[in-house]
Amino acid sequence: MRKNASGIDNSKQRIENKNNDLDLYLKALNSAYSGIIITDNLQYDNPIIYCNKAFETISGYAHDEIIGHNCRFLQAQDRSQAERSMIKESIERGEECKIEIRNYRKDGTLFWNELFISPVKNDEGQVTHFIGVQNDISDRKKAEHDLREEKSHVELKIQQRTKELQDKESFLSSIIETVRESLLVLDSNYIVLSANRHFLNSFKVTTEETVGNLLFDLGNQQWDISSLKEMLTRILPTNNPVIDYEVDHIFPHIGRKVMLLNAYRIEFEGQYKDRILIAIEDITEKKEQDRRKDDFLSIASHELKTPLTTIKGLFQILQRLSAENIDPKYVSTLDKITAYIDRLNLLISKLLDTSKIQSGNLELHMDPFEIDKTIQDAVESMRLAAPDSDIHLTGNTGSIVEGDELQIIQVLNNLLSNAIKYSPESKKVEVSIHRVANFVKISVRDYGMGINYQDRLKIFERFFRVSHIQKKFPGLGIGLYVSHEIILHHKGTLWVESEPGEGSTFNFTLPIVINK
């Protein structure tokens, strides 16, 4: 008995040592200066299942926005690089690879990436994972480029730069005066150097009251807005622009204004060094219009819901009262009317969901459920509803997620309906479910018309519809918006991968709470 007890103690000690070693390895990876990712080569599209803190910093994306993606998402629309093919070939051969490639951060800025890819093999020699080590070499690339330019174009650069500075001085003045937006130029101490006529007219002030004064002291300190100060203090130290920053403030004489601010640091040489350009767009009326539109949608949807429910109930009574020898055309007509009532009811429900999301009143009933079974049931229901479509389901995670099961089914039904609707030439739809790190990833792939890059940027916006699609297929452009917001409320992400003529793949992730 002592020997057995001693063996158990030794096993426990070994397990504890392994756990300590694993924690040490993870801490070491997160302390590394280089960005490190691990991809699962046994899963479709080789998704990222781990990334360290340095990779998040380099790419600008958060951990949950990275997991589940293929690492090619960093190239955005810059897809013609030969290095992409080199990566693909190395992965297919299961070999190491070292390249330098152009990547783009979440905010769209370019950075050069020195990438090392190494395969990880199991005991049978099968490549199960790839490890990618990434270094930001933008500074080195910029230095190399500048050195080449200096060697070959010194005289030309001096002449061009001189002319450029002269042009910018006059050009900037012209822009400030002619743009139909309020524009301010500040120095590094937030003193107003210039204000265009639109600003003066909009805020009922004069040039003498504005130029040469501290922004926060203008008027009776009406611009002493804490959120504005916070925004501006982030620009000069970091050199990062501020995009579409919303400020809601009550001004004397002109009342409440909702403004959209964009601010940039100007780094011209000479007298324009360290300037801040602020563009102010008045969206007060637009906000009010959106509010009235949302109120209308909410009221109209509620008002339509009650009589529609009554009408459906009356038609169900008529269907039950139909005699056995009644004209089949009469029965068929009742069935068609009921189907159209159901379609109208679904549309009203989507409008109600949109209204709830905008008002922040979307109701979620969060409970644990088996995601595999939910996806299987939803796919089977869609097969029955669309018997002409060829829907394939692959994958199994054995995971339990926490969320509103009906809302998740609504998301999947919407993605499946779109895949069928926008693929008139191909009936094949592929649904897959996999586990990636601590998330479940569900993908819906069609072989339809595809979506171009510009439309992909807006496809999850409310009421947005692709221009050439809306002419052929009816709809309001709210299904993907509602789906995106539902997944966001579940702490997951929803995104699309698509090319014109090559179909689309919609993916979404949900955090796992229990693994069986």
From TrEMBL:
GO terms for cellular component: membrane. Pfam families: HATPase_c, HisKA, PAS_9. Signal peptide: none annotated. Residues 299-514 form the Histidine kinase domain. Residues 21-94 form the PAS domain. It is found in: Membrane. Its EC number is 2.7.13.3. InterPro entries: BphY/WalK/GraS-like (IPR050351), HATPase_C_sf (IPR036890), HATPase_dom (IPR003594), His_kinase_dom (IPR005467), HisK_dim/P_dom (IPR003661), HisK_dim/P_sf (IPR036097), PAC (IPR001610), PAS (IPR000014). One of its GO terms (biological process) is osmosensory signaling via phosphorelay pathway. Keywords: ATP-binding, Kinase, Membrane, Nucleotide-binding, Phosphoprotein, Transferase, Transmembrane, Transmembrane helix, Two-component regulatory system. GO terms for molecular function: phosphorelay response regulator activity; phosphorelay sensor kinase activity; protein kinase activator activity. SUPFAM superfamilies: ATPase domain of HSP90 chaperone/DNA topoisomerase II/histidine kinase, Homodimeric domain of signal transducing histidine kinase, PYP-like sensor domain (PAS domain). Residues 97-149 form the PAC domain. It catalyses: ATP + protein L-histidine = ADP + protein N-phospho-L-histidine. It is a multi-pass membrane protein. This is histidine kinase. The lineage of its organism: Bacteria, Pseudomonadati, Bacteroidota, Sphingobacteriia, Sphingobacteriales.
